[in-house]
Amino acid sequence: MSFVEYRDVIQNGDTAIVFLGHDSMFAIKVQQGGATQTKYGAIKHSIDLIGKKYGSKVTCSKGGWVYILHPTPELWTVTLPHRTQILYSTDISMIIMMLELKPGSIVCESGTGSGSLSHAIIRTIAPTGQLYTVEFHKQRAEKAEEEFCDHKIDHLVTVKNQDVCKEGFGVVNVADAVFLDIPSPWEAVKYSKSALKMEGGRICSFSPCIEQVQRTCLAMTEQDFMDISTFEILLRVYDVRTVSLQLPDLGTGGTNSQDTPADLKNQSKENSWSDSQQGTTQFKSGAPLREMAGHTGYLTFATKYLS
Ligand SMILES: C[S@@+](CC[C@H](N)C(=O)[O-])C[C@H]1O[C@@H](n2cnc3c(N)ncnc32)[C@H](O)[C@@H]1O
């Protein structure tokens, strides 16, 4: 198992996702002789997991079953142990696209935090790219390094335990893109510029408050970044539901001049019967959920051009 290469069979040491439902899943480390408790009972790693195919339905000791999934950056984002606030797939997908990341890209990131974004960047830039990620909190930097190793992506990432606002990224003129998710990104803008390649590149800064965005935009302007633009990404989810709608009353097609008063009376009776007995129709429709996830943060993008 590796986060950048799919393997068919579950092996000792793998990180695997136990899927109970779309809203209920968690990550485990598969270990010879190990066991995992679920609400459907225990899963014995040696018997139920090792040697089985990813995607298998596994029956737990109380008779209920779960699926065991191969990990992906998207599944890791919803199952990882939180050490910090993290970025979610809605913002991540926009970041990857707007930074124009692709296999072989060189990227600088700070802070590493819980590594949610780092995993998505690494999957995108593999097999020949490199991520330089800077985190000033020692334990977080060490934990991220340990997870990158466990997930067999450590050859694609360099973790640095330092203050990006004082020491920068530790690389100069190598990056195609820079990403900032720190409380004072404006202090790291000049280091971002020097980390980017001479011929230029893209930068993105994520901030929850508009005051942070304003200061960052000013710093970007001072450092000659161009095309500065800020977005807020809101996800509107649609639910498929059965909807009942009243049928329109289109009448009976008009009256015939030869209709007798008795005919007209009968037609009127038929109309009122159809309103009360057959007046609605049911169909499937996509309807937006009444509640939606709110503000996460603003994404400010800009370009460094060859000066
Ligand atoms: C919100 S978290 C980043 C989350 C990350 N983007 C993710 O998706 O998991 C911010 C991190 O930046 C780190 N940080 C804050 N200021 C920093 C600085 N000046 N230099 C390096 N790291 C910094 C914090 O310790 C924290 O771990």
Automatic annotation (TrEMBL):
Localization terms from the record: Nucleus
Binding residue positions for S-adenosyl-L-methionine: 114-117, 135, 163, 181
GO cellular component: nucleus; tRNA (m1A) methyltransferase complex
ATP-binding keyword on record: no
Enzyme Commission number(s) from the entry: 2.1.1.220
Catalytic activity: an adenosine in mRNA + S-adenosyl-L-methionine = an N(1)-methyladenosine in mRNA + S-adenosyl-L-homocysteine + H(+); adenosine(58) in tRNA + S-adenosyl-L-methionine = N(1)-methyladenosine(58) in tRNA + S-adenosyl-L-homocysteine + H(+)
Main location: nucleus
Domain tRNA (adenine(58)-N(1))-methyltransferase catalytic subunit TRM61 C-terminal: 64-304
InterPro entries: SAM-dependent_MTases_sf, TRM61_C, tRNA_MeTrfase_Gcd14
Sequence ranges of Polar residues compositional bias: 269-284
Single Gene Ontology BP annotation: tRNA methylation
Record's keyword terms, sorted: Acetylation, Methyltransferase, Nucleus, S-adenosyl-L-methionine, Transferase, tRNA processing
Entry similarity comment: Belongs to the class I-like SAM-binding methyltransferase superfamily. TRM61 family.
Self-association state and partner proteins as the record states: Heterotetramer; composed of two copies of TRMT6 and two copies of TRMT61A.
PANTHER family reported in the protein's UniProt record: TRNA (ADENINE(58)-N(1))-METHYLTRANSFERASE, TRNA (ADENINE(58)-N(1))-METHYLTRANSFERASE CATALYTIC SUBUNIT TRMT61A
Protein name as it appears in the record: tRNA (adenine(58)-N(1))-methyltransferase catalytic subunit TRMT61A
